[in-house]
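Regression test case RT-17, inverse folding.

Input:
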């Protein structure tokens, strides 16, 4: 039989189990402990609920932000980009030029008078030496007539002087002959005088014969002296006559020169073309009073231009001076011939740069055998030069201008946007050549939006960039 439980038996002994916590304490304390445990559990549950309900919105917001970011990444802004192309290897630069005739000459009158007749008008093609007009010159004609008379008189005076010279030369020859004969007679008389002196000493002849021979000798000496004096006089006459001939010749030369001058002036009564060309100006008609000279008060009779070859004057900026050389080719366009290009050759280059304009004067020659081009036309002259440094070239729409300068946006290999401050080298008309800021091969955003920012992720869409025949890139 089981032993009956008593109140004073321990619970473990009665139940055969381990006593619960709190055993060993008085029974009146057990309900209070259970109440505390319930409170602790409830507090723990409440605190956990507060923590859960407080963190849940934050977690929700973070998840929404992550989802939004993922959505933004998945739907990044699309931008058009173009690859920066290298500039052309051969650079072409165009400059304005003025066309002139290769030879141009205004024609003025060289004599005074009245225009008798005109034979040419503007636009006429004339040849060298062709008569353009005749001028009546009565004063010059009279001067020519008077000078002709003076020449005839001078010729007559010269003829007289020459005749006098001829006569004096003949007299001189006669005197020379007389001197020769007198010398011969003197030699004979001297021999006779010596011989008779010897014979007189020997008594072969009389003293009277000796004296006669001696007197003959003295007469021969006197005759020789007279002949020599006549010879000197004749020689002086020859010199005088020769001087008179020189004077007469000089007078004739003077009046002949004057006559030639008057005739040369008279020849200007015919106005002629100085070279082959075209009459570009004509300012006179028949009956007009003509005054010689090229003063400002005297008008130009005609102006002739040689247009089978034209020259174009171009002023080249200083930076292009190293590329300009004699014999190089140049290409020209004229507004009148919009669809044609004319070839020219650099013929003359100035020896220095103008210190005021910093330009170099260059002369280009263009063949114009068909006379299609006219002097005074405006030309666009294109030169080609090798490019030493090839800078990146991009469309003009890639540039954004702000107060602190120009900017461009590029996209890197990770599709991240970067903003660059750039320096423009040249405006190529629809395109920019960039000195600094971007490089060849960079992807540059075309027409960038105001929403673009540094570091933004975008979706680049490439646009085609090609090059024209000259190698110049275009978008």
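Golden output:
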């Amino acid at each position: 039989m089981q032993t009956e439980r008593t109140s004073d038996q321990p619970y473990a002994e009665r139940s055969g189990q381990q006593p619960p916590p709190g055993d060993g304490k008085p029974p009146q304390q057990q309900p209070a402990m259970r109440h505390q445990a319930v409170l602790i559990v409830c507090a723990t549950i409440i605190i956990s609920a507060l923590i859960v309900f407080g963190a849940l919105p934050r977690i929700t917001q973070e998840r929404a932000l992550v989802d939004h970011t993922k959505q933004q990444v998945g739907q990044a802004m699309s931008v058009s980009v173009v690859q920066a192309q290298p500039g052309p290897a051969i650079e072409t630069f165009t400059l304005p030029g003025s066309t002139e005739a290769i030879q141009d000459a205004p024609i003025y009158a060289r004599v005074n008078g009245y225009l008798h007749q005109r034979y040419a008008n503007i636009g006429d093609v004339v040849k060298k030496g062709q008569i353009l007009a005749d001028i009546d010159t009565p004063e010059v004609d009279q001067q020519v007539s008077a000078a002709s008379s003076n020449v005839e008189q001078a010729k007559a005076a010269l003829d007289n002087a020459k005749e006098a010279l001829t006569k004096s030369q003949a007299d001189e020859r006669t005197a020379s002959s007389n001197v020769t004969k007198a010398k011969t007679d003197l030699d004979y008389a001297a021999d006779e005088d010596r011989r008779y002196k010897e014979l007189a000493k020997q008594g072969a002849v009389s003293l009277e014969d000796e004296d006669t021979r001696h007197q003959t000798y003295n007469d021969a000496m006197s005759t020789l002296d007279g002949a020599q004096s006549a010879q000197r006089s004749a020689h002086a006459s020859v010199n005088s006559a020769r001087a008179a001939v020189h004077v007469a010749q000089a007078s004739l030369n003077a009046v002949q020169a004057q006559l030639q001058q008057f005739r040369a002036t008279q020849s200007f009564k015919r106005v002629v073309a100085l070279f082959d060309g075209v009459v570009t100006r004509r300012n006179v008609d028949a009956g007009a009073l003509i005054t010689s000279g090229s003063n400002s008060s005297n008008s130009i009779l005609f102006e002739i231009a040689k247009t089978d070859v034209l020259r174009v004057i171009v002023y080249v900026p200083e930076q292009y001076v190293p590329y300009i050389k004699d014999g190089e080719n140049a290409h020209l366009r004229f507004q009148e011939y919009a669809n044609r290009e004319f070839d020219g050759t650099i013929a003359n280059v100035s020896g220095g740069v103008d210190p005021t304009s910093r330009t170099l004067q260059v002369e280009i020659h263009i063949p114009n055998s068909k006379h299609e081009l006219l002097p005074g036309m405006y030309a666009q002259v294109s030169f080609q030069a090798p490019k030493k440094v090839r800078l990146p070239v991009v469309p003009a729409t890639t540039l954004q201008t702000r107060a602190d300068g120009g900017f461009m946006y590029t996209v890197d290999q990770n599709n991240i946007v970067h903003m660059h401050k750039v320096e423009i080298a040249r405006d190529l008309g629809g395109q920019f050549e960039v000195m600094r800021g971007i490089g060849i091969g960079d992807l540059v955003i075309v027409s960038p939006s105001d929403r673009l920012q540094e570091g933004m992720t975008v979706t680049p869409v490439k646009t085609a960039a090609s090059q024209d025949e000259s190698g110049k890139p275009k978008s």
